[in-house]
Every structure is written in structure tokens, then in C-alpha cells.
Design brief:
The complex is a heterodimer of chains A (about 600) and B (about 240). Chain A has helices at about 35-50, 55-60, 65-75, 95-105, 110-120, 125-130, 130-145, 260-300, 310-345, 350-360, 365-385, 400-405, 415-430, 440-450, 465-490, 495-525, 535-560, 565-575, 585-600, and strands spanning about 150, 165-170, 175-185, 195-200, 215-220, 225, 240-250, 255, 300, 305. Chain A has about 600 residues and is an alpha+beta fold. In chain A, strands 1, 2, 3, 4, 5, 6, 7 and 8 form an 8-stranded mixed β-sheet that branches. Chain A has a two-stranded antiparallel sheet with strand order 9-10. The longest helix of chain A has about 35 residues, at about 260-300. Chain B has about 240 residues and is α/β, with parallel strands linked by helices. Helices cover about 25% and strands about 30% of the residues of chain B. Chain B has helices at about 35-55, 70-75, 90-105, 125-135, 185-190, 235-240, and strands at about 1-5, 10, 20, 25, 35, 55-65, 80-85, 110-115, 135-145, 150-155, 160-165, 170-175, 195-200. The longest helix of chain B has 17 residues, at about 35-55. The chains are: A alpha+beta (about 600), B alpha/beta (about 240). At the A-B interface, α1 of A face α2 and α5 of B.
Chain lengths: ~600, ~240
């Protein structure tokens, strides 16, 4: 099939070497009336059905309550947003399903169940299912009549997913696979009607395939048993179990996609899961911050509301800033994915293939948003709890649950460590394949650090000229370090995980800071500078924070491998590329906090 | 059965209220708008009646284009079509005249609305509309069934409820627990954009009122707790501190 590449469209990972225009990014202010109504439906559902039952959900000993909530969500159509209309869903675009994920973000354990069902449970069939498989299963999954779970992880196979030991042997008559294996941490395990199971096919001679295959396994196929729900730190209401497959008889036609394609399915579905997680946690973070704002207004000490203290304002302003940045990054990438999908479809690709390929093109951004979002949430629940003081530690106040429930997000859908390494690994692989010209800019930077710094050239007198220069320089710093590390370690760079983490940290911060600045620039174009004063404050707060983090990560990386002259030159380069004009960030955070305190909510 | 549901577009209950133009205009900046909560109950009951007995629901709103999101929401919840009288409503009499004008042209069996809006809270529009159309009106109605062309309903009265029966057509001002608020589902939201929203110009109405200015209630004072055993202190404090005695 000939696919015409749209040359004008943005490529994944390209932000690091190319400047993006504000007009090229989607900002949440551009959501339509209809999309906003969808978001409101999600929030109303949580408010009426989930929030009043959070204690019950967490204390539930059996999965009936969660299952009934899923039914209600299904009645509202919240389980079918990403399923094509011809299979009983609503076929919404990627960014709309992102908005749904965000709007359900304060649902605690319910959100986990919902996203596991609609994401990793349903999407493998949406993207890889045959016509028959789609027609048979998707209508049931879209309405919630059937609930789905995803079985990839095993006791000895977590981040190294392709090392799983579960096996499937084709029967002599070729009609069934006999599935055996043990799966761990299976969300929705206790009430799932359908499992997406990954296992390696064994021809019967004891020789397992190198790669995983994926199967659609109905609970009724028999041979499926499970342990009691796991006892966990958080998301206690999420029904998570070990699932055992003992001679489970799976019809041969329930092999998903082709033999040995399972690992690819797992990876591609996880790409989607990652960015959806990245935006769902932002929904959760906004919820936590709102609690903190309200408490800061209510709680009085020394005769005044604690929100009037600078230490509290600092927390509120910083939390809002990080949330704003992460949200912006998510929807920017989400729209890039939507655009890529449209381009690919216009080039003749099928809907399912285009969606997969579109997400794959932005797999780097998916990993970035996952890491960034989950760490913003952890920061926000921690600081929100701190605003509550002693009361924050009480299970009667809302932050105790939020604090515990947040922690899993840095672990599942690929740990943040795996995702950080993926960010760098994917960038380098694309560079090697010639898809992304990293070497050119990296070489230019290495020449630049040997030359005399350009002191003279005044920035143009346009909006954010200085800030854009800062971002350009941060990109140079990241390229300088990545380039030098590649030269130093060549193929062995993958053994230098500490350096990869440092470089990933720089790239993640650059993406978030740039997204925020572009959103504000676009908003200023629409509403004028005065109306966007607070978002502008946040863009500046974020940019300064990003510079600090890049300095810290950069120093750490450089001193991990460079010595002598190289070390000195690179540290000087880092210093040169991380210059930023100081500003009064304390006042900026205060302005952001004061505005939220006045409205008693998160207002951006 | 043809049902007309009249909805208001009001600031969210948590909105911060302030005024501009020398306290003569409500400051809409940053304010989130919603369908009037009582109107939302009326709409929810109308949808239930339609689901059980068939019929059509038209949503009517007197207001400007910035109300369209709330009208679309009403369509997403289950109304079939909508009419917006394109004007800034002046007062209850003005709104009632517009509603009555639309109702005269379309002969509805049932005209439902909230017992009152939650911005100006006059609570008289249903009575005015009934009077203008020459049909009965009741409020606040908290239970409603339609049987054989008759409405059986309950109304809240001082100290209890009264159960009434009346023939259609009727105008009813509604309140909870007549129905539970409905959350629009995805299907509803996606079909809402295809449902007709007709914009009509208002009929002219003589100015019955004019607005001088708005003012906010005085901010709540500090609350002082007095232990039961010191109750006698209260009198002194009311005299010396609060200075109300």
C-alpha cells in the first residue's frame, strides 16, 4: 500500500531539533462545546455515582460494586468513546478520548478500572482484531455488557515483558490453543468477562516462540482461576488479582493479529495507555489542588486563613504551574496524534492501522507525558496533603487516599525508569534510521561550544523572543550531552542508565516548558496579553524551573562520563546554554495562588 | 403529548458574584453558567414522561446566544428541539410574555419550568404564563404523573403536601423530588448538534420595571461561640459588641 507522507505535518520527537510555532499546537481552550459537554458528563458521573462511594469502593471485598459502576458508566457511553461507531461505540478522535480520561481522573480506583477496560482491555481488539473478532466483542465491550482485563505481566516478567513464560500449544486438530500460565497484577481480574492474554506459542516440541502472541480469552472458556484481590498501598478498590490459566481452551480464531505479533501489540497499546495515563493524572491533580485551595481558604491559624501565608501560596502557585504544563503537553501531543492519523488515512491507510501508526509516531511524546504527568501528580498530592497539615494525614480528609492512589502511576504502564530510557532510546533509534536528524544539530552544537559565545546579537523585539532563545539553548544542552554520550559509549550507551535518565529528564522538561510557552503565546494571540497575565506567569515559572532541572541533570550526566578538558568544555557549554534572565518568581507564584484563592478553585 | 420546558441560564451555585458599570451590571467574567437547577428537574421529569408515554419535548429559553451551550445540553438530555427568544430578559413579566407568545402559537399540553430561577428567584413566571394563556398553573410541584389526559401531582404547602388533579393544558413550576437530574449520555451529546435550535426575535413588551443598582449582602461577620454555662454573657455581648440591643 502506497502511503503518501504529508511533509508539512509534525513528526514525533522533532520538537527537540525544530522550532514549533504557537499556531501549530492545540490548546485545551480550543475544545468545542460538544467536547466540553462530554467532559461535564464524566465529571457529573463521578460526582453523583463515584465520589459518594469512595470509601465503599475501597473497602469492597467483592467486585460487585465496581462492576455495577462500570455498568452505569457504560449506560452513559463512557466505555465506548474510542470504539468505532460501526461496532457500537462513538468513534471519537484521540484528543476527545484524552479529555474523557482527564475528566474521569478524580475517580480513584474507578478510574483505574475504567481505563483498564477501555484502554488495554478493549483497544487491542479495536486495532488488531479481525472483522469477526471486532463484530463479536466490541459492541459488548463498548456498552460495558462485558468487562475486559489485560494479562501481560507475570511473576518473573514485568518490565521485561517479552520474557513471559505463559505458553499456548495448538491442538492436533488445529482448532484450539491450550493456554497455560500465571499472570500478575491483573486489573479488573475479578469481574472480567474477557481477557487479552499474552503467551508464547509452542509447537508442541517444547520450543517456545521468541516473541509473544496475543489471545482473546473469554472467562467462559474454562481453566481460569484466580487468587483473592491483592492487598495494595493504594487504588484499593481496583480489583487486582493473579490469574491462572490451566489448560484453558482458546479457539484458534481467537489468536489476535498474527503469531509472534503480541509484543508489538503490547508495546503499541502501552503507548496509548501512557499518554492517556499522563492526562488522567492531570485530572486527578486538579482535584487534589482544588481541595488544597479550599482548605487554604477555610483553615485559620494565627487569626488568618493559611492561604494568606507565602509558604502556602508558593505551594499553590507551583502546583498549578506544573499541572498547567503537563496538561498542555498532553493535548499538544494528542492533537499531533490526531493529525498524524488523519494524514495517514488520507494516504490510504485503514482507520485501525492509521491510529496505531499515528500513536507510534509520537511514542516519544507518549512516554514523556506519562513520566511528567505521574510525577506532577505525586508532587501535587504530596504538597496538597502538606497544605492540610495534620488533617492531611487523616483518612477522613480527601488527601490521604489521593496520596496513596497516586503512587501506582509511576509504576504501571511501564515504570517511569523504563519510560525515561525509552525516550532517549527511541530518539537515538530514529536518528540511526535517518528519520530524525539529531546528528546534524548535535554536531553543530559541539562546534558552537568551541567557538566564541555570541554576546552581541540582540533578540528580536517579538513576544517571548528571549524565552524561545532559552528553550533553543536548553535543546542545545540536551543535544550536546546526548551527542557526547553516544560518541563515548556507542552501542554500550544502554548500559549507562543513569546518563540516559539525566538526558531524558532534560528532554521531558524541555517539552513541558516549550508546550506551556506556546500555549500562552497562542492564548495571547486570541485574548490579548492582559487577559493571559496569569498563564504567562506560569509559563515563566515553569521555564525557570526547567532551566534549573536541566542544569542539575546536565551536570550530573556530564560529570558521569567526561574528564579533563572535555569535562571543562562541556560544563562551560552547559552554563552557556542554561542562561536565563532572573525574575521574581515568588511574586509570580503569589499572583497565581491569589487568583485561585479568590475563586476558591483551579481556574486555568 | 407536547411538552414545553422553559429553562433559565444561571450562574453556577459556586460562582463568585460581582457587579460592573457602577453596580448596574452583573459581571459575567469567569462565571460558569448552568441550566437552572429547578428547570433541570422539570426537564428530567419531561424526559421520563416522554420515555414512558411518547410525545415531544421543546425547550424554550429567553436569552442571548451565550446560553446556547445550556440549550444544547437540554437537547442532549432528551429534548427534541429548542427555541431561543433572542433577547436579554428584562424581568419576570417580560419573560412570561415571551413564553406565552411562543405557547400561543404551538398549543402545548404541558408547560414545565422550575419553581424559580436561582439568580433573581422571583418565582412568578409560571403564574404569569398561566394567567396570560388563561390556563391553570401550580407551583411548587414535586411529583407529577399524567393519566388519561389528566395531571396528577403533588404540591408542597406549608407543613405538608397537597395532592391535586387537573386537566391539561397546565403550567407547572417544578422542584425536587419530581425527578432526578439527568446526565447527558454520549449518544445524546452527539445527536444534540443535529437537533433544531430555532432563534426567534422577541415580541415587544412595555417596560414594567427598571433597574437602579445591585448590591451584595454585607459580608458575614465573625462567629463567636459562647459556652452554655456562660450563656448570660450573650446579653452583655449583644449590647456591648454587636450593639444590637
Amino acid at each position: 500500500m502506497a502511503v503518501v507522507e504529508n511533509q508539512s505535518s509534525i513528526k514525533g520527537g522533532e520538537f527537540l531539533i525544530k522550532e514549533t510555532e504557537a499556531s501549530q499546537i492545540f490548546i485545551p481552550e480550543e475544545f468545542t462545546e460538544e467536547q466540553k459537554m462530554i467532559a461535564e458528563t464524566c465529571r457529573d458521573f463521578l460526582r453523583t455515582e463515584v465520589h459518594p462511594r469512595l470509601d465503599k469502593i475501597d473497602a469492597a471485598k467483592s467486585p460487585e460494586l465496581m462492576s455495577s459502576l462500570m455498568d452505569k458508566a457504560g449506560e452513559l457511553g463512557l466505555l465506548g468513546t474510542a470504539v468505532p461507531e460501526e461496532y457500537g461505540g462513538f468513534g471519537m478522535n484521540f484528543n476527545t478520548s484524552m479529555l474523557v480520561a482527564e475528566s474521569l481522573g478524580t475517580g480513584h480506583s474507578f478510574s483505574v478500572a475504567q481505563s483498564a477496560h477501555t484502554g488495554i482491555g478493549t483497544l487491542p481488539i479495536v486495532y488488531y482484531g479481525s472483522e469477526e473478532q471486532k463484530a463479536k466483542y466490541l459492541p459488548k465491550l463498548a456498552t460495558g455488557e462485558w468487562k475486559a482485563a489485560y494479562c501481560l505481566t507475570e511473576p518473573d516478567s514485568g518490565s521485561d515483558a517479552n520474557s513471559g513464560k505463559s505458553k499456548a500449544v495448538l491442538t492436533d486438530d488445529g482448532k484450539h490453543y491450550i493456554l497455560n500460565g500465571q499472570k500478575m497484577w491483573i486489573t479488573n481480574g475479578g469481574f472480567a468477562d474477557l481477557f487479552i492474554v499474552f503467551a508464547k506459542i509452542d509447537d508442541g516440541n517444547g520450543q517456545l516462540d521468541k516473541n509473544l502472541s496475543a489471545f482473546i480469552v473469554e472467562n467462559d472458556f474454562g481453566g481460569i482461576t484466580m487468587n483473592e484481590p491483592e492487598k495494595k498501598l493504594g487504588i484499593k478498590g481496583s480489583d487486582t488479582r493473579q490469574v491462572f490459566f490451566n489448560d484453558c481452551k482458546v479457539p484458534a480464531e481467537n489468536l489476535l493479529s498474527s503469531r509472534g505479533n503480541g509484543f508489538k501489540i503490547a508495546v503499541n497499546i502501552l503507548n496509548i495507555g501512557r499518554i492517556k495515563l499522563g492526562v488522567a493524572v492531570i485530572g486527578g491533580a486538579k482535584g487534589s489542588l482544588e481541595h488544597a485551595i479550599q482548605y487554604a481558604n477555610e483553615r485559620k491559624q494565627f487569626g488568618i486563613s493559611i492561604g494568606r501565608f507565602g509558604a502556602i501560596k508558593h505551594k499553590l502557585g507551583e502546583m498549578a504551574t506544573r499541572i498547567y504544563a503537563s496538561e498542555t503537553a498532553c493535548y499538544r501531543a494528542g492533537q499531533n496524534i490526531d493529525d498524524a492519523i488523519e494524514d495517514l488515512k488520507a494516504g490510504g491507510m485503514t482507520d485501525a492501522d492509521a491510529k496505531l501508526k499515528g500513536v507510534e509516531q509520537f511514542a516519544i511524546e507518549c512516554a514523556i507525558t506519562k513520566v511528567h504527568g505521574s510525577e506532577v501528580l505525586d508532587y501535587v498530592v504530596d504538597e496538597s496533603l502538606q497544605v492540610y497539615g495534620g488533617m492531611g494525614y487523616s483518612a477522613d480528609a480527601p488527601l490521604e487516599r489521593a496520596y496513596r492512589d497516586s503512587r501506582i502511576n509511576r509504576i504501571f504502564e511501564g515504570t517511569n525508569e523504563i519510560n525515561r530510557m525509552l525516550v532517549v532510546d527511541m530518539l537515538l533509534k530514529r536518528a540511526m534510521k535517518g528519520e530524525l536528524d539529531l546528528m546534524g544539530p548535535a554536531t553543530a552544537v559541539s562546534k558552537e561550544i568551541m567557538s566564541i559565545p555570541d554576546f552581541g546579537a540582540e533578540e528580536e523585539d517579538v513576544l517571548f523572543a528571549k524565552e524561545k532563545k532559552v528553550l533553543q539553548n536548553l535543546k542545545k544542552a540536551a543535544l550536546m550531552i546526548a551527542g557526547a554520550a553516544v560518541q563515548k559509549f556507542m552501542m554500550k550507551l544502554s548500559h549507562e542508565q543513569e546518563i540516559l535518565m539525566n538526558v531524558a529528564d532534560m528532554i521531558i522538561e524541555i517539552y513541558a516548558a516549550e508546550s506551556t510557552l506556546l500555549r500562552v503565546e497562542k492564548l495571547i494571540g486570541i485574548k490579548g496579553e492582559e487577559a493571559v497575565a496569569l498563564p504567562k506567569d506560569m509559563a515563566m515559572i515553569y521555564l525557570h524551573g526547567a532551566v534549573d532541572k536541566c542544569i542539575s541533570a546536565g551536570r550530573s550526566a556530564i560529570s558521569s562520563f567526561a574528564e579533563g578538558d572535555e569535562l571543562r568544555v562541556m560544563l562551560m557549554g552547559l552554563k552557556r546554554f542554561t542562561k536565563i534572565e532572573p525574575m521574581n518568581l515568588k511574586d509570580a507564584r503569589r499572583r497565581v495562588a491569589d487568583a485561585m484563592l479568590a475563586e476558591n478553585k483551579y481556574i486555568f | 403529548m407536547k411538552i414545553l420546558v422553559c429553562i433559565t441560564n444561571v450562574p453556577d451555585t459556586t460562582a463568585k458574584i460581582s457587579f460592573t458599570d457602577n453596580n448596574t451590571k452583573f459581571n459575567k467574567a469567569g462565571v460558569q453558567y448552568i441550566i437552572g437547577p429547578y428547570d433541570d428537574y422539570a426537564l428530567a421529569r419531561a424526559v421520563e414522561l416522554k420515555e414512558a408515554q411518547g410525545g415531544t419535548i421543546t425547550v424554550l429559553h429567553v436569552g442571548e446566544a451565550d446560553s446556547d451551550p445550556q440549550i444544547r445540553k437540554a437537547l442532549a438530555i432528551g429534548a427534541d428541539d429548542a427555541i431561543r427568544v433572542n433577547t436579554e430578559p428584562a424581568d419576570s413579566y417580560y419573560v412570561a410574555t415571551q413564553i406565552a407568545h411562543i405557547a400561543q402559537q404551538n398549543s402545548y399540553d404541558l408547560i414545565l419550568m422550575g419553581r424559580e430561577s436561582i439568580d433573581f428567584n422571583s418565582g412568578v413566571v409560571h403564574g404569569l404564563v398561566g394567567e396570560m394563556l388563561g390556563i391553570p398553573s401550580f407551583s411548587p410541584v414535586m411529583k407529577l404523573d399524567i393519566k388519561d389526559g389528566k395531571a396528577e401531582f403533588a404540591r408542597e404547602i406549608d407543613g405538608g403536601k397537597e395532592y391535586l388533579e387537573a386537566t391539561l393544558p397546565l403550567v407547572l413550576g417544578c422542584q425536587e423530588p419530581i425527578a432526578e437530574w439527568k446526565i447527558p449520555n454520549m449518544r445524546g451529546i452527539m445527536t444534540a448538534r443535529t437537533k433544531p435550535l430555532q432563534v426567534v426575535e422577541p415580541v415587544s413588551v412595555d417596560d414594567m420595571t427598571s433597574l437602579e443598582s445591585y448590591s451584595l449582602p454585607a459580608p458575614k461577620g465573625e462567629c463567636k461561640m459562647i459556652p452554655v454555662e456562660e450563656a448570660e454573657k450573650l446579653i452583655t455581648l449583644l449590647r456591648t459588641e454587636a450593639k444590637v440591643l
